[in-house]
Amino acid sequence: MEKTKVVYCGNVCEKHLNKEICVKGWIKKNRKLGSLLFIDVYDITGIVQVVVEEKNKQFEECLKTPKESVVAIEGIVRKRSNINKELKTGEFEIDLKSFKVYSKSKLPPFLIQDNTDGLEDLRLKYRYLDLRRPIVKSNIIIRSKIINLIRNFFINNDFNEIETPYLSKQTPEGARDYLVPTRSRKFFALPQSPQIYKQLLMIAGMNRYFQIARCFRDEDLRADRQPEFTQLDVETSFLDANQIQSIIEELLVYLFKEFLNIDLKIPFLRMKYSDAMENYGSDKPDIRFENKIMNLTSYFSNTKFKIFKNVYDSKKRIGGLFLQDLISKNDIKKLEKIALDNKAKGLAYLFIKNKKVESGSIASVVEKEIIEKICNDYNLEEGVLFFIADEVETTLQALGAVRKEFLNISNKVVINQDFAFLWVVDWPLFEYSDTENRYVSAHHPFTMPQKEWVDNFEKNPKETLAEAYDIVLNGYEIGGGSIRIYDTDLQTRVFKFLGLSEKEINDKFGFIINAFSYGVPPHGGIALGLERLLMIMLKTNNIRDVIAFPKSSSGTDLLFDTPSNVSEKSLQELGIKLEK
Description:
Layout: E1 20-33, E2 36-43, E3 46-53, H1 59-64, E4 70-79, E5 92-103, H2 120-125, H3 127-130, H4 134-156, E6 160-161, E7 178-181, E8 187-190, H5 195-203, E9 208-216, E10 228-237, H6 241-260, E11 269-272, H7 273-280, E12 294-295, H8 306-313, E13 317-323, H9 329-341, E14 348-353, E15 356-360, H10 368-378, E16 383-390, H11 392-409, E17 421-425, E18 430-433, E19 438-441, E20 468-473, E21 476-483, H12 488-497, H13 502-515, E22 523-529, H14 530-537, H15 568-574
Parallel strand pairs: 3-5, 6-9, 11-17
Antiparallel strand pairs: 1-2, 1-4, 2-3, 4-5, 7-8, 9-10, 10-22, 12-13, 13-16, 14-15, 14-16, 17-20, 18-19, 20-21, 21-22
Helix pairs in contact: 4-6, 7-11, 9-11, 12-13
């Protein structure tokens, strides 16, 4: 009889029928039915069923071997009498001839299956077991395949993949750096992005660069953030913003077609930053649904409702949002908390039916004829009309956050498409930081001002626009980029405007200022967050689902129990003394 040496579990098929093969993997489960024992064995490719007859001398050993033990099984492939259509190998089974145990498993701390009973912290502590779950394993394999597709795309478009250092220099702006102490009593910093390196590569004449880059940011965490993450980093010389955006569009068309068999339409929609904020209250709006923010200030010019009247008289903003669903009071409480968390003083609401007020928190104090006019002008039939009255920026930000929550509390929000891409353009060059009491870069300090602002951005920092662009998908910023400053004098002016002294400029950025004196091409680029993109493509809600060994929501590694203490000897070598 012809013998096949080793076959992956998920690859057992018709060509192996009536042949002796060997499979190696983990025991998923075993079940005894009468005189027969059925064992499911799995590996990275899938599951295959093994049958052991009671007369087999290894029957008892097979029966007693715990789940998740690693085994090798040799036997004859035959057709199953009861076909399992849910398995790739569901037509076949292996009639066991020999059974070998490589290692036995203890009882796992949670069920190793998609519908597990393990909470996230427990699964992160035993991540190597969690990775055996089919859905988690699949995500990591898909990640590998998509990264390979990205590499193929850029290499085929004449880009060079170039690695940049992890041990770098601390720079201002952005999130806090992770610092790496050395025995010389000085520090490296882990890069928040390869920004300066890729600009130096353009000065070096590399022309088209890309990298699958690891980045590190010590910032507050949420579902779409991790302290260490991976980004697709791209930089080019002599291309303008539209050309760079077109390359990224072509990449995404390629990825979605190759992987999801979805035909994306390009060019993607482009929206000014000011329009995004005005209509959606967000610089990363989810445009899959409408529910735009309404500027209702003018309707209350003669209202007797003092709060709204005072806001109107002080030239602030009365903004509105309409949800076409009569949601519960508990849902309204959730939305009120979101508004308060976003600095609003409150969230007023009215229940609307047949374009008229039925009830609500301000039903007894606001004129019904004003509301009826709003309903008629905006064609608001039935649902809840929300109001925030405050400073313009606060009103827009809070309503934007409330709008985003509509997707979680109502199934009547109309989703127009699965994947909605958007370029947000015409960004401000600076934004004012209340905590630092100064202007900071909206993106980073190497961003080029738009042409009409190059000579006078210091006089009009609030109005100055940047050659910057973000790409947004389903309400998530998945990438950001800009055309870079390539003039020494202009770069120095920007540094000084941001509050850096001559000494600080020289200490922190002297190397790039010096490099600028040796001929710099016009250049620009972009960086895409790979985990965020994968999270959306795979329709999961957390980037931890697409990272092999992620940190917890508090930024700790539960598997290695880090960050952890180090020995006093190590601290002494580094010249570090910790305060209690």
